[in-house]
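Give me structure tokens for this 165-residue protein.
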Amino acid sequence: MAKKQRKQQGGTPATVALTAAGTAFTVHAYEHDPASPSYGEEAAEALGVAPERVFKTLVADVDGELTVAVVPVAGQLDLKALATAVGGKRAAMADPAAAERTTGYVRGGISPLGQRKQLRTVLDASASAHPTICVSAGRRGLEVELAPADLASLTGAVLAPIGRA
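Here you go.
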């Protein structure tokens, strides 16, 4: 019963990890529209947060190793910059099934936090321009707001300019 109640209150592996680490964060829920073409832009609009402060979590394959890229929803991931940031040569978007299986989250709800297997993570350098940013809390319709430095610390992320407009 307690487990079910926690899930109803928004408990996900991401929020559990944040709570366990003693990190300050705020959960924001919104009604997800399955027909929405962009999960991240939908979140920014629904929450009334500037798209530059809402970051999407993408999983890429860099030289055969799955790598997480966290970039603003207002832009795109620069795969070449991602490869460079982790000392790789080539990057391509990961197979969605492999990303879901490895992280434990569904596409559109992948969080950089609380993954089944913590992947190497790169956070776009633009995050440091904001006191807080929003990332997926582990399911569609749920975002978590936290300081970029806390996100980087908890995920072991490298900060690098990997986003493009």
